[in-house]
Amino acid sequence: MKRIVLTGGGTAGHVTPNMALVPSLKEAGYDIQYIGSYNGIEKRLIEEMGIPYHGISSGKLRRYFDPKNFSDPFKVMKGYLEASHIIHKLKPDIVFSKGGFVSVPVVLAAKRRHVPVIIHESDLTPGLANKICIPAATKVCCNFPETLKHLPESKAVLTGSPIRQELFSGNKEEGLRLCGFDDSKPVLLVMGGSLGAVAINNSIRENLNELLKQFQIIHLCGRGHYDASLDGTKGYKQFEYAKKELTHLFAATDLIISRAGANAICELLALKKPNILIPLPASQSRGDQLLNAASFEKSGYSYVLQEEELTSNTLLKAVQYVYDEREEYIQTLKESKLNRAIPIIMNLIKKYS
């Protein structure tokens, strides 16, 4: 039996594509192991799947000044030694990395141990962690055609993002039931990622009465952002974070407002949901969500509203426009060719393991 080590963490976006590969890896007969940080979000998600989990020390490498810049390199070095020991013990045939800083010591340790590595880069331009890892990789998969020019030609493979197949098995009636809704109005789903998005949360709540005239609203507000004062508001249902119920919530949804994290928007693409993207601004990120959103807008998959331009007027106008044009958006989403990531990635894994 061949063995694969999966790695990646820090946010759900660095874990869910790995999770999406698990059923196909099991079907192909691979023994699956996971290396992540001691207590990151990936630990809980992976252990719930019954996959053996190995924790290592993890530190973040920053381009800006932070006092932790003095201590985190030592955490990364410790993580490298721990990853090297684990890989030596497990003797995997291949490593698949979804990125995040916990993946850096794992990929570098695999290279040292002569284990083939396949990396997946979700964003339009590679992040710092993957930039460090690319020289050690055998192949680098990516989501966007624009990303190919940022990667070594001999390593780059356009795959799209692996999508969890259970997302396609949702039941609309169950989604409505979970929220206490009926089918009298269309459903607007608002999501800001696993950590939430304060600007989006505030804008939705400030315009709740107006939005509820036309829509029922499912609000995935992020951990710590639940507003109990709004409990009982007819047509409005909050969740800090949705897991098993998410597939049913998607099935019940007609229109989505989201951040522009690469994995989230690839799920919207696969589910063919008309959407409004409000990317994380450059002041709060390296600008990857801005590039992701621009690519999706150019392809006709999304309507983009910049956070700096987010007002009651622009929000309500965007929602009305996308809902009115929803059939055109759905047709464009159906024509996308970026929905075959899992078989392409599985072929690469089989080839190099």
From TrEMBL:
<keyword id="KW-0961">Cell wall biogenesis/degradation</keyword>
<comment type="function">
    <text>Cell wall formation. Catalyzes the transfer of a GlcNAc subunit on undecaprenyl-pyrophosphoryl-MurNAc-pentapeptide (lipid intermediate I) to form undecaprenyl-pyrophosphoryl-MurNAc-(pentapeptide)GlcNAc (lipid intermediate II).</text>
</comment>
<protein>
    <recommendedName>
        <fullName>UDP-N-acetylglucosamine--N-acetylmuramyl-(pentapeptide) pyrophosphoryl-undecaprenol N-acetylglucosamine transferase</fullName>
        <ecNumber>2.4.1.227</ecNumber>
    </recommendedName>
</protein>
<dbReference type="GO" id="GO:0008360">
    <property type="term" value="P:regulation of cell shape"/>
</dbReference>
<comment type="pathway">
    <text>Cell wall biogenesis; peptidoglycan biosynthesis.</text>
</comment>
<feature type="binding site">
    <location>
        <position position="164"/>
    </location>
    <ligand>
        <name>UDP-N-acetyl-alpha-D-glucosamine</name>
    </ligand>
</feature>
<keyword id="KW-0132">Cell division</keyword>
<dbReference type="Pfam" id="PF04101">
    <property type="entry name" value="Glyco_tran_28_C"/>
</dbReference>
<dbReference type="Pfam" id="PF03033">
    <property type="entry name" value="Glyco_transf_28"/>
</dbReference>
<keyword id="KW-0808">Transferase</keyword>
<dbReference type="GO" id="GO:0005975">
    <property type="term" value="P:carbohydrate metabolic process"/>
</dbReference>
<keyword id="KW-1003">Cell membrane</keyword>
<comment type="similarity">
    <text>Belongs to the glycosyltransferase 28 family. MurG subfamily.</text>
</comment>
<feature type="domain" description="Glycosyl transferase family 28 C-terminal">
    <location>
        <begin position="187"/>
        <end position="340"/>
    </location>
</feature>
<keyword id="KW-0573">Peptidoglycan synthesis</keyword>
<dbReference type="GO" id="GO:0009252">
    <property type="term" value="P:peptidoglycan biosynthetic process"/>
</dbReference>
<feature type="domain" description="Glycosyltransferase family 28 N-terminal">
    <location>
        <begin position="4"/>
        <end position="140"/>
    </location>
</feature>
<feature type="binding site">
    <location>
        <position position="194"/>
    </location>
    <ligand>
        <name>UDP-N-acetyl-alpha-D-glucosamine</name>
    </ligand>
</feature>
<feature type="binding site">
    <location>
        <position position="289"/>
    </location>
    <ligand>
        <name>UDP-N-acetyl-alpha-D-glucosamine</name>
    </ligand>
</feature>
<dbReference type="GO" id="GO:0050511">
    <property type="term" value="F:undecaprenyldiphospho-muramoylpentapeptide beta-N-acetylglucosaminyltransferase activity"/>
</dbReference>
<keyword id="KW-0133">Cell shape</keyword>
<dbReference type="GO" id="GO:0051301">
    <property type="term" value="P:cell division"/>
</dbReference>
<keyword id="KW-0328">Glycosyltransferase</keyword>
<dbReference type="InterPro" id="IPR006009">
    <property type="entry name" value="GlcNAc_MurG"/>
</dbReference>
<keyword id="KW-0472">Membrane</keyword>
<keyword id="KW-0131">Cell cycle</keyword>
<dbReference type="InterPro" id="IPR007235">
    <property type="entry name" value="Glyco_trans_28_C"/>
</dbReference>
<feature type="binding site">
    <location>
        <begin position="11"/>
        <end position="13"/>
    </location>
    <ligand>
        <name>UDP-N-acetyl-alpha-D-glucosamine</name>
    </ligand>
</feature>
<dbReference type="GO" id="GO:0071555">
    <property type="term" value="P:cell wall organization"/>
</dbReference>
<dbReference type="InterPro" id="IPR004276">
    <property type="entry name" value="GlycoTrans_28_N"/>
</dbReference>
<dbReference type="GO" id="GO:0005886">
    <property type="term" value="C:plasma membrane"/>
</dbReference>
